[in-house]
Amino acid sequence: MDNVILGLPLYYYIAMVAKVLVAFVFVLLTVAYATYAERKIIGHMQVRIGPNRVGPMGLLQPIADGLKLFFKEEIIPAESSKFAFLVAPLVALVPAFLTFAAVPFGSTIEVMGYKVPLQIAAYYDTDMGKVVDLNVGVLYVLAMASLGVYGIVLAGWASNSKYSLLGGLRASAQMVSYELAAGLAIIPVFMLVGSLSLQEIVKAQEGFRWFIWSSPMTFVAGLLFYVCALAEINRTPFDMPEAETELVSGFCTEYSSMKYAMFFMAEYANMVTVCAITATMFLGGWDGPFSRTMPLLSPLYFIAKVYFLMFVTMWIRATVPRYRYDQLMTLGWKVLLPTSLALIVLTGIAGFMGFNTFFG
Fold first, then answer.
1. The pTM is what?
2. 192, 219 in Cβ contact below 8 A?
3. d(CA 285, CA 276)
């Protein structure tokens, strides 16, 4: 294990591969069973049963759905731009998985005498005695989140269908409107922490000093970011790019079989990633009782927070009706954007006047 490759010990690469596999399997399984959980949760909220035929309590329903989509006929519209039509699902899906590389999903654990941080894009520097991660992790997350919408726009354009094109145009307008507010909403966090590193943001919240309740500004910023994130990933009540009652199925109207399934997977993978980022930036990430003294507890706290936020997302879908398009644009430009700018100003004033942002 003392072998060195490109200046780093061999265990670093072994740990990296292991973390990639664990994170990928976690996201993939969560995506698969998030569809089952959502159908069950919404079913109970609407006094229905939900999936209950395939396997005990319907637990094998996601597997059955996947097999059905895998063996369905592939249809490519004759008038479509074929290369772009085939590439679009990949462009939508891949960034959703890549984003997770910068998210710390646990504390630093010790394996065979080596310290391994539970974050893909991070390693423990023995000379410096600390975890070194992507020092612009938040910018990386925002960049990856922006790429996913290109797949939706590309799908809408390449399908050569009016419904699909309208869905793609709506997605691009929605992304521009809400990404700006989402980016501004997290600036108060940077101002308080003084770093763009997600590891540093989690450390700043240790001891239950989570930003969601540490000050009024960060509480409102957390709500703003979460709402804007729902709009970015086209979740109800911001699902205008699909809008079944208006656009049949929006940008993915012409897709079938596994290509349609990839768009479906991208939506739920984005939901997992958005909830993970929200938990990291405002709910303390992996911080919890005894998470420092018992590092193996930290991933459990992180997963619990992510699943709680996913439940809230599903709850919103079951209870809140879809916005009209003009209401969606008005909310983004006239409410969320000015509010996020006001939060930055208030945070700056509070810091200049020396106010303690944490209670106690």
1. 0.88
2. no
3. 8
